[in-house]
Amino acid sequence: MNLSPKKIVKQLIYVLFISLAVPFLLGFLNFLHPLFDSYSHFRIHLLLVLIPTMFLLAFFHELKNLLIYLLLIMLASLYLYYLNQPFKPKPIEHDKNSTLKHIQFNLRYDNPKMDSVVAYLKESQADVITLQEVTKEHQKKLEALKEEHYLVEFSERYPHLAWRKGAYPYQAYCEFYPRIGAVAILSKHPFNEESSTCLQGEGLIWSQIMVKKKPINIVSIHTRWPYPSSQAEQIQKIKPIFKDIKSPSIIAGDFNAASWSHTVKEIEEASNTKVIEGLRWSISLEKQLPLLPNFKLAIDHVLISNEFQVANIFVEKNLGSDHLPIVSELRY
């Protein structure tokens, strides 16, 4: 049977539509299988191609079906708009008069700009920093930030000897993958050693810091990709630790998962925290996908317990990693 050029084009657009719509819809069933959770991470990207594909299909149909496609296009566009909402600050409650600045950053194991990273962290004045992919070479650079030393300072009358504390004297590291590196926490404030855990090989470290004698639990986390990697099994291994981590708490890291993923929802439920709202493109996949320039994902997150309110959260400048630092300013 001979097909006209118009019918061939229509069939090709149908194939494209189905190949996009199936993973998009399966992404909403991400609780059934890790493969579907992987699909859900690309929800925005699939919509960006699905919407124009449905426009093309609409022109090949009569008025009745055309209206159905236009309705689907409208619903898809509204959902895309909803997913793309940035962080919107809310009024801070009067009793939230303490401030905590936090930085979340996946260094990347082969980061060539560690001197710039160290200088940035030192200048940031952040209270606490959560890091991932910290290699032994990275750790040597970062440990310079905890050095305490004496220096000579000059006043108007005479020089005197002063004692200067390191920018981040309290540091904790927990090995994940030997080649990829550890998860880590750097803090200006002292650790409560009795409330800390390293889940070696599982990408989680928990340390309780004491801020003005008040305990705050900090978790740095790095999860694997859902499928074909073993993120689901990893989550089941780390979930029990959250029974011991009481509020107030901050959980931050490279989740390799979108904020609406099943993985993030599982951690939210286990830890009694919520991901800070707003879309933040935190990783560029130019090295992994060179044929797709500017392809980004939003897979780095900060989860907080309800003691905290967010004054601001934003993505910082490039510091040699494929990930970007995420800076949050919290009130409690």
From TrEMBL:
Q: Which GO terms describe its molecular function?
A: endonuclease activity; exonuclease activity
User: Would you say which domain of life the source belongs to?
Assistant: Bacteria
Q: Name one GO biological process term.
A: GPI anchor biosynthetic process
InterPro entries per UniProt: Endo/exonu/phosph_ase_sf, Endo/exonuclease/phosphatase, GPI-anchor_lipid_remodeler
Q: Where is the Endonuclease/exonuclease/phosphatase domain?
A: 103-323
Q: Is Nuclease included in the keywords of this UniProt record?
A: yes
Cellular component annotations (GO), alphabetically ordered: membrane
Sorted alphabetically, the keyword list is: Endonuclease, Exonuclease, Hydrolase, Membrane, Nuclease, Transmembrane, Transmembrane helix
Transmembrane stretches in the record are 12-36, 42-59, 66-83
Any Pfam family the entry gives: Exo_endo_phos
In the record, which residues are listed under signal peptide? none
Name of protein: Endonuclease/exonuclease/phosphatase
Species: uncultured Sulfurovum sp
